[in-house]
Design goal:
mainly beta, Methylamine Dehydrogenase, Chain H, five-stranded antiparallel beta sheet, 3 helices, 34 strands, disordered N terminus
Length: about 450
C-alpha cells in the first residue's frame, strides 16, 4: 500500500509542478465566524486534482449567502467607477451593495523582492498568500530549493526560510501551514505571523492538502490504508477516515467545513467516470457517489479543480471550463451556474467577508499594457464592477494576481529597479500589493 501511495503522491506532485511552472499560488482561509476574506481557488489548467493555486485551494472566512448555486446570470448594465448598473432599473443592483472596490486603486503601497538563487534564469516565483492579520508569505522557487519570506503589510521582512520545497502554502486567520517535501518525503509545517516555525510538525506522508475554513487543513495521507486526515491549526489530528484506494483526483473543503474527496470512478461507475465522497466536519464519512459521467480520459489524468461557493458547497472546473457544482454533503451534482460558465479560464476568490467573488485573470499572459483587471461578482452572478491593477508601464508578461485572507491584493510584477537586472533578465521575484483593499 505504501508503494501505491507513493504512485499517487508522484501523480499529485507532477500536477503541482505543472501548476508551479506557470507560477502557482497557494491560498488562505480561516474560521467561518470571522469577517476577513480567505484564499482563492480556481481553474488552473494543469493542476490536476489540486484546488486552485495554490494551492491549495481554499475558502473564504466570514459569513455569506448560500446562493452560489443560483444561476443569476451576468448583469446586463454598464460598469462605471467600480460599481455595477442594472440594465433593467437603471440603478445600482442591490446584490452589489458593499462589494465594489475603486475602479482605479492607484499605485501599490508596498513591495518586496527575493534574489534568484541560481544565475540560470530557471528560478520561479509564487503568487504569495496573506493571513488575516495582513502578514504576507512569498516564495522564490529554484530547482530543489526554495526561499519563503514572511513580510509585514508595510513591506518589512519578518523572517526567511530556505531549504526544501513547499507544494502548498496556506494562510489562515493567523499564521500559515505548508505542505513541505524533500525527495519522496512529504509533511506539514506551521508558522506564526512573525514567521517563527511551530514546534509541531507532522511526520507522515501527506498530499493534496486543502484548507479547512473552520481552521487547519485536510489532507490525503498514506500508510497501510489510504486515508483522509483532518489536522487542526496546531497540526494535531482531529479525525482520520478511510478512503477508497482508487486514484485521487481532488480534495476540497467548503465553508461549512465539509470535505469532498474526488477520485477516479472507473472501478465503481464505469470507464472514465468521476466519483466523490463527503466527510462532515466531525469526521463522519458519507456514501460514495458518482460526481460526473464518462469523461474524455481517466479522471485522474484530467485537470479537475474544486472551488468554494459562498455559504457552502463547491464549484468544479475541468481545465478552463466550469462544469459542475455540488451542494454541501449532496450525492449528486448539477451544472455550474450560467454566470460562471460565461467566465472560463479564471480563478475565484471570496471578497468582503464572503459576500461576493473576485474573478481573477489567469497567470502568465503577454500583455501590451501591463494591467490586470479583477471583476467583482455577487453570489447570484451580478457583475459589480472591475478594478484595474497596474503591474508596470508598457508591455509585460503578467504573473499571478491574488487576493489575500484579509482582502489584500498582491501582484507578481516586473521589478522596476535597474540594479536587479541580470544577464538573463530580471534577477528577482518581485511583488507589490494593496493592503486590505477587499476587506
Amino acid at each position: 500500500m505504501r508503494s501505491r501511495f507513493l504512485v499517487e503522491l508522484a501523480l499529485v506532485a507532477a500536477a503541482l509542478c505543472g501548476a508551479r511552472c506557470g507560477t502557482r499560488e497557494a491560498a488562505g482561509s480561516g474560521s467561518g465566524s470571522v469577517s476577513p476574506d480567505a484564499g482563492y481557488s480556481g481553474a488552473d489548467a494543469g493542476a490536476s486534482g489540486v484546488p486552485g493555486d495554490g494551492g491549495g485551494g481554499s475558502v473564504d472566512a466570514g459569513t455569506g449567502s448560500n446562493s452560489g448555486n443560483t444561476d443569476g446570470g451576468s448583469d446586463g448594465g454598464t460598469v462605471t467607477g467600480g460599481t455595477s448598473t442594472d440594465a433593467g432599473s437603471g440603478g445600482p443592483s442591490a446584490d452589489c451593495t458593499g462589494l465594489p472596490a475603486p475602479a482605479d486603486p492607484g499605485g501599490a503601497s508596498a513591495s518586496h523582492f527575493i534574489w534568484f538563487r541560481d544565475s540560470t534564469g530557471n528560478d520561479g516565483c509564487s503568487g504569495g498568500v496573506v493571513s488575516g492579520t495582513g502578514t504576507l508569505a512569498v516564495t522564490m522557487e529554484a530547482p530543489h530549493y526554495q526561499t519563503i519570506d514572511f513580510v509585514s503589510s508595510s513591506g518589512t521582512l519578518l523572517a526567511s526560510k530556505s531549504g526544501g520545497g513547499a507544494s502548498a502554502l496556506i494562510a489562515a486567520e493567523s499564521g500559515f501551514i505548508g505542505n513541505m517535501f524533500a525527495s519522496a518525503a512529504s509533511w506539514l509545517e506551521a508558522w506564526n505571523d512573525s514567521g517563527a516555525q511551530s514546534t509541531t510538525t507532522t511526520h507522515e506522508q501527506v498530499a493534496n492538502v486543502a484548507e479547512d475554513p473552520l481552521g487547519g487543513v485536510v489532507a490525503l495521507t498514506g500508510g497501510t490504508t489510504p486515508q483522509i486526515t483532518s489536522f487542526d491549526t496546531s497540526l494535531a489530528v482531529r479525525w482520520r477516515v478511510n478512503r477508497p484506494a482508487d486514484y485521487p483526483v481532488g480534495l476540497g473543503v467548503d465553508r461549512e467545513g465539509a470535505t469532498l474527496f474526488l477520485f477516479d470512478g472507473t472501478r465503481l461507475f464505469g470507464a472514465n467516470t468521476l466519483a466523490g465522497m463527503w466527510v462532515d466536519h466531525a469526521g463522519v464519512a458519507g456514501n460514495v457517489f458518482q460526481m460526473l459521467g464518462p469523461q474524455r480520459d481517466l479522471a485522474f489524468r484530467l485537470p479537475f479543480a474544486l472551488t468554494q461557493r459562498t455559504g457552502s458547497g463547491l464549484f468544479l472546473a475541468l481545465g478552463p471550463a466550469w462544469v459542475a457544482q455540488v451542494d454541501s454533503l449532496a450525492t449528486a451534482s448539477s451544472a455550474a451556474p450560467d454566470w460562471l460558465q460565461a467566465r472560463p479560464n479564471v480563478r475565484l476568490h471570496m471578497v468582503r467577508g464572503g459576500k461576493g467573488y473576485a474573478v481573477l485573470p489567469v497567470e502568465a499572459q503577454d500583455a501590451q499594457d501591463c494591467v490586470q483587471r479583477v471583476e467583482v461578482v455577487s453570489p447570484s452572478g451580478k457583475s459589480c464592477g472591475t478594478t484595474s491593477f497596474r503591474a508596470a508601464s508598457g508591455p509585460c508578461r503578467t504573473g499571478p494576481i491574488t487576493v489575500g485572507y484579509d482582502g489584500t491584493v498582491m501582484q507578481l510584477a516586473p521589478d522596476p529597479d535597474p540594479a536587479h537586472q541580470e544577464w538573463f533578465g530580471q534577477g528577482t521575484c518581485y511583488w507589490h500589493w494593496w493592503p486590505g483593499l477587499f476587506r
